[in-house]
Amino acid sequence: MNIDDLREEIDKCNIELINILKKRQIIAKQIGIIKKAKNIKTYDPLREKVIINKMKSFSDENLSEEMIENIFKEILLASKILQNSL
User: Fold this and answer.
1) Measured between alpha carbons, how far is 79 from 30 in angstroms, rounded to an integer?
2) Disulfide: which of 5, 51, 63, 83 matches 32 by Cβ 3.0-4.6 Å?
3) What is the rounded CA–CA span in Å between residue 24 and residue 16?
C-alpha cells in the first residue's frame, strides 16, 4: 500500500466513526429526554468515570489510556451539550 491508499483507508474509518458518533448521539438524546421527564440532572460524574475507566481497559500500544480518556471526555461533553439543549 502507498500513502494515498492508506489515506483512503483513514477516510473510510473517519466516516465510520462519524456514523457511530451520530448513532451514539441519537441514543444520548433519548436518554436526555427521559432525564428531563424525570427531572434527573444531565451530568452524572460517576457514570462518566465508569464509562471512561471501562473504555480505558481497551487501550494498547496504538491507543493509550490517556488518549482514550481524552477522546471519551470529548464524546461525553458532546452528549451533555445535546442533552442540555433539550
Assistant:
1) 11
2) 83
3) 12
